[in-house]
C-alpha cells in the first residue's frame, strides 16, 4: 500500500477545511510555516498543486477540493474508530447547546447526515443562552464577538423576508418606501426594523405589526403569509432556496453579527468530529 507521508495529511486536511494555513496552525498547535511546508511536501509527493497561493490567502484547486474531501472522510472514520476503542460506547455522547432557531433551520435538516456517518455517536441537544446554560461540549450562539475556542459558522445578517404569496397578494415591493404599506413583523422588539429603516433615512411607521418573542414563531407567521420580517438569511438558506421564503432587498442589518460555534476547553473525540462536521456543513452549504 503506497501512501503519502502521513504527517502531511493532517496538516493538509485542516488547511483545506479552514481554507487557511494560519487557522489550521492554530488548530494543530504548530506554526503556519510548518503547515505550509507539510502541504508543499504533499504536493511534491502527489505531483499536483492542492492550493492556489495569493497575497491575501490561499484557495483550493479542483484537485485540492477532491483530495480534501477524501482525506477528511478517511480521518473522520479513523477518529470515530479510535474513539470507540479508547472511550467505549458509554462515552460516545456529545452535548450540544444551541439556539432553538439554529436547531430548527440549520441542524435538524442536516443531522441525519451526521448520524449516517457516525451511527455510534449520540448527540444530546439542549438550549443555549443565559437562562438555559448547562455544561456542554459545543455551544452555538449568536452575537458580535466570541472567545478563543470559537469559530464563525455563518453570518447573522438580516434582510426583509416574506412568503412569495404575501408579495403576490400585497406587492410589488420594488423599493424601500413600498414597505411602509406592508405588515411588518418583529422579532422580540421593533428595534431591528427601526435601525433598518433609519439606515435609509426613513422612520418606522406607527402602525407596528405583531412582536414575536421567539424567532421560530416569527418564521411560522412569515410562511403563513402574515407579513414581512427582518431575518438572518443565511440561517433560512434552505427555506429561501426551496422557494418557501423570498428575500425582498439585499441591504442588510446586523452586518457585524455571526452564529458562533464554541468548543469546551477539553474536547472528546466525538465532540471534535461533530465540531468539524458542523463547520464543514456550513461551508459546503455556502452559508
From TrEMBL:
Q: Does the keyword tRNA-binding apply?
A: no
Keywords from the named record? DNA-binding, Transcription, Transcription regulation
Q: Which domain of life is it from?
A: Bacteria
What the entry lists under PROSITE patterns is as follows:
HTH_LYSR
**What are the transmembrane regions?**
none
**Which GO-annotated molecular functions does the record name?**
DNA-binding transcription factor activity; sequence-specific DNA binding
- HTH lysR-type domain spans which residues? 4-61
One GO BP annotation of this record? DNA-templated transcription
Q: State if Nucleotide-binding is listed as a keyword.
A: no
**Family annotation (InterPro entries):** LysR-type_TF_proteobact-type, LysR_HTH_N, LysR_subst-bd, WH-like_DNA-bd_sf, WH_DNA-bd_sf
UniProt cross-references to PANTHER family, sorted A to Z: HTH-TYPE TRANSCRIPTIONAL REGULATOR (PTHR30537), TRANSCRIPTIONAL REGULATOR-RELATED (PTHR30537:SF79)
The free-text function statement in the UniProt record for this protein reads:
Transcriptional regulator of the ttuABCDE tartrate utilization operon.
Protein family per UniProt: Belongs to the LysR transcriptional regulatory family.
Give the protein's recorded name. Answer: HTH-type transcriptional regulator TtuA
> Could you tell me which species this protein originates from?
Agrobacterium leguminum
Amino acid at each position: 500500500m503506497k501512501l503519502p507521508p502521513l504527517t502531511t495529511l493532517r496538516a493538509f486536511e485542516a488547511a483545506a477545511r479552514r481554507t487557511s494555513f494560519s487557522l489550521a496552525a492554530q488548530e494543530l498547535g504548530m506554526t503556519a510555516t510548518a503547515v505550509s511546508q507539510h502541504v508543499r511536501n504533499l504536493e511534491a509527493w502527489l505531483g499536483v498543486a492542492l492550493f492556489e497561493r495569493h497575497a491575501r490567502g490561499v484557495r483550493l484547486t479542483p484537485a485540492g477540493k477532491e483530495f480534501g474531501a477524501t482525506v477528511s472522510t478517511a480521518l473522520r472514520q479513523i477518529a470515530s474508530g479510535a474513539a470507540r476503542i479508547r472511550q467505549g460506547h458509554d462515552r460516545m455522547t456529545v452535548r450540544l447547546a444551541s439556539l432553538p432557531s439554529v436547531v430548527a433551520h440549520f441542524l435538524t435538516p442536516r443531522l441525519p447526515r451526521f448520524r449516517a456517518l457516525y451511527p455510534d455517536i449520540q448527540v444530546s441537544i439542549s438550549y443555549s443562552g443565559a437562562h438555559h446554560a448547562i455544561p456542554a461540549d459545543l455551544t452555538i450562539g449568536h452575537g458580535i464577538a466570541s472567545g478563543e475556542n470559537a469559530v464563525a459558522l455563518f453570518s447573522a445578517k438580516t434582510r426583509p423576508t416574506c412568503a412569495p404569496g404575501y408579495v403576490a397578494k400585497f406587492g410589488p415591493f420594488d423599493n424601500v418606501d413600498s414597505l411602509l404599506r406592508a405588515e411588518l413583523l418583529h422579532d422580540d422588539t421593533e428595534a431591528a426594523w427601526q435601525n433598518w429603516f433609519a439606515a435609509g433615512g426613513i422612520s418606522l411607521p406607527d402602525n407596528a405589526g405583531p412582536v414575536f418573542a421567539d424567532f421560530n414563531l416569527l418564521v411560522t407567521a412569515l410562511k403563513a403569509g402574515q407579513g414581512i420580517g427582518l431575518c438572518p438569511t443565511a440561517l433560512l438558506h434552505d427555506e429561501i432556496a426551496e422557494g418557501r421564503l423570498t428575500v425582498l432587498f439585499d441591504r442588510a442589518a446586523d452586518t457585524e453579527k455571526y452564529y458562533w460555534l464554541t468548543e469546551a476547553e477539553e474536547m472528546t473525540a466525538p465532540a471534535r468530529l461533530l465540531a468539524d462536521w458542523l463547520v464543514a456543513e456550513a461551508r459546503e452549504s455556502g452559508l
